[in-house]
Design goal:
The complex is a heterodimer of chains A (about 325) and B (about 180). Chain A has 13 helices and twelve strands. In chain A, the strands form three sheets. Chain A has a five-stranded antiparallel β-sheet. Chain A has a four-stranded antiparallel β-sheet with strand order 9-10-11-12. Chain A has about 325 residues and is an alpha+beta fold. With about 180 residues, chain B is α+β, with helices and mostly antiparallel strands. Helix content of chain B is about 30%, strand content about 15%. In chain B, a hairpin with a 2-residue loop joins β3 and β4. The radius of gyration of chain B is 20 Å and the shape is elongated. Chains A and B meet through α2, β3 and α6 of A and β4, α4 and α5 of B.
């Protein structure tokens, strides 16, 4: 890796100032940054260590919402009593992520900013990748696309986003609080990550100099009845082939409201809004009706050469997830 | 090796940004508290905690398996919590309590988990073993070693190519039952 200067940042203002300078990269948990440095995915002139900023690691819950500081560690959020009780999909998604060691180091903000696991992006040799070198092409389009997107891709990039907790947060309509040099703003989680289009190297809507300070999730009956399912080729410590965050509100045996977000299938967490709408009024016991409704979420799927199995796999996973969350199976 | 500046006609050359990059390694003085003792070191800013331990301090009990956070052989404790030293910059470990495998035994008296690994034949080549033990101690302290399924899941960050997993599991479960870590 190339040499870099290093400084520790003591205040949020200093962090914002550092983030506003070209050539400066922020480091918190380091679990992504160290690999980016080793693979020369990024070449900062300076690393600014924000990991010890005070107060940004708090987990606070009241009757109306959960607020998670961006520097809260994944393991601490997963183990938090309020999160486990009132937002179980968040805890489950976190516990199914990475490894215990990584969860102790990695922060919630960094988790949202992780970059794709696409093998061409992560390759140690120089392969066509429009994220790494804009304009160099996308080797995945005619290559190994098994783990890549069936939604939201483009002719420039079909990479997926690998965060599990982002999928859970998308299902619960979370918002991201961001601090810039002149103001603070909130961004709906579902709008935070960009689709690749013809600029796949621009992955989020964060402007230069903006720092994530917190995530907020509204409290609701939906949030309290929520689960995360993850299908992968190893039982643990592996990224998702497909995953789903499901949240349900039931009226007896009928679905009043459903929220479904998928992981492993798109450049960002993928809400199945058409399926959510179609599920209104459907009985949780009617597997056939569940399937008909869920299928509405896949009509715009664009399977590639080797990943078409994800359409059926994700459909079955969502049905199972609905049944599990609804108290069956 | 420092490289010479690219020609000014290169299309994406930004002179301001380029000349801000250090061409020479950047050295930093750090004080690391390891197994209860303080050590002062001057390290390249890029040095990982793993390399500082092994290459500068002769603490070679911690192993480099993959150097990319995928195998767990480099597991140490930072402020009592298990972490990967290959993904930790040495400079960022300053001010934290670092515990390595060398810090578990009390003189000649093995830690409970070390003894359990011997009793339950929980290693063959031994390369993953330091990381397994460090991770296992923490797993027990986290309350995640109450069942075989728990240990399977919460030790999943430590790979063993010799596949001593059943014995590793047995050792950790036994140590947990015998009074924890």
């Amino acid at each position: 890796m190339q040499p870099f200067a290093f400084s520790r940042v003591a205040t949020l203002n200093d962090a914002v100032a550092a983030a506003s300078q070209p050539g400066v990269a922020l480091i918190a948990g380091g679990t992504e940054m160290l690999n980016w440095l080793k693979e020369t995915i990024v070449k900062p002139a300076r690393l600014a260590d924000i990991s010890r900023l005070p107060t940004l690691d708090r987990i606070e819950a009241d009757a109306t919402r959960l607020r998670i500081g961006s520097l809260a560690r994944m393991s601490d959020v997963a183990d938090d009593a309020a999160v486990r009780r009132d937002y179980p999909v968040i805890s489950e998604a976190l516990l199914k992520s990475a490894s215990p060691q990584i969860r102790n180091m990695a922060t919630m903000g960094g988790n949202l900013l992780q970059r794709t696991r696409c093998p061409y992006f992560r390759a140690e040799t120089d392969l066509p990748c429009n994220k790494r070198r804009p304009g160099s092409g996308c080797a995945a389009l005619a290559g190994e696309d098994r783990t890549l997107a069936i939604f939201g891709g483009s002719e420039h990039c079909i990479a997926t986003h690998a965060s599990d907790v982002a999928v859970a947060l998308a299902a619960l309509d979370a918002t991201i609080l961001v601090q810039g040099s002149s103001d603070a703003r909130t961004i709906p989680l579902v709008d935070f990550h960009r689709l690749p289009g013809d600029t796949p190297q621009r992955e989020t809507v964060l402007a230069p100099g903006e720092i994530i300070t917190a995530l907020e999730v509204p409290a609701s009956a939906l949030a309290r009845r929520s689960h995360y399912l993850k299908l992968r080729e190893r039982a643990s410590y592996e990224f998702a082939l497909v995953s789903a965050a499901i949240a349900l509100e039931l009226d007896g045996r009928l679905i009043r409201t459903a929220r479904i977000a998928l992981g492993g299938v798109a450049p960002k967490p993928w809400r199945l809004t058409a399926a959510e709408t179609a599920l209104g009024g459907v009985s949780i016991d009617d597997a056939g009706a569940l399937r008909t409704a869920v299928a509405r979420g896949f009509t715009d799927a664009q399977p590639r050469k080797h990943n078409g199995f994800k359409v059926e796999l994700a459909t079955r996973m969502v049905i199972r997830g609905l049944q599990h969350t609804g108290g069956l199976a | 090796m420092p490289s010479s500046p690219p020609p000014e006609s290169a299309p994406d050359f930004d002179r301001r940004q380029f000349f801000k990059h250090p061409l020479e390694p950047v050295s930093i003085d750090v004080t690391l508290r390891i197994n209860g003792a303080e050590t002062k070191l001057r390290v390249d800013s890029r040095t990982t905690l793993l390399d500082a331990l092994r290459e500068r301090l002769a603490l070679t009990g911690t192993k480099k398996g993959c150097d990319r956070g995928e195998c767990g052989a480099c597991t140490v404790h930072l402020d009592g919590r298990r972490a990967l030293s290959c993904l930790t910059l040495a400079v960022m470990a300053e001010g934290r309590e670092i515990t390595t495998i060398e810090g578990l035994a009390r003189g000649d008296e093995l830690h409970l988990v070390q003894a359990a690994f011997i009793e339950h034949d929980a290693f063959q080549c031994g390369f993953c073993t330091s990381g397994q033990i460090m991770s296992g101690v923490a797993c027990i302290r986290e309350g995640r070693a109450n069942s075989a399924d728990d240990v399977r899941e919460f030790m999943s960050g430590n790979l063993c190519r010799c596949s001593a997993y059943p014995q590793i599991r047995a050792a950790i479960l036994a140590a947990a039952k015998n009074g924890g870590a």
